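Quick one: structure for this chain?
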Amino acid sequence: MRSVLKLEIEEAKVMIAAGIQAAVEAKAAETICIVDEGGYLLALERMNGARNTSPELAMAKAFTASGHRRSTHLFNQPGGPATIHGEAFGIHAMMPGKFAIFVGGFPIVVNGQVIGGVGVSGGVGEDDIAVGVATLRALQQHLGDRFEVLTDADIKK
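Got it. Here's what it folds into:
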């Protein structure tokens, strides 16, 4: 048996607020999604002016990052698992509409446990990464020194 950390709405709200602030600073209209460890929606915010497709994309990115325990952009980098010779080539076709292999999804890893995912959609790739990392840093700040949150863009757990 082991103790399990659980992401709750209070943490999700802190993360969303930090993401919106980072998006405003980047002048990017983003949708930010936070899911739990099972990929189920906890919170989603679509900023004014964000594309109408961005909520679905943000949810898919968060789901993928949580379930597969890696930043979504790592799937399609050269040699990545979703590339033509990778072990997971075509994986996105197995779960149509739920699996994303492009920039903007990050697992939420606290004390070595994946407890959820963040999905960001609406800006260019650099904006999505900056906003996603801002949400993770906000969680670290909110939780304090008792917890270690991975805040690097390239998370692979």
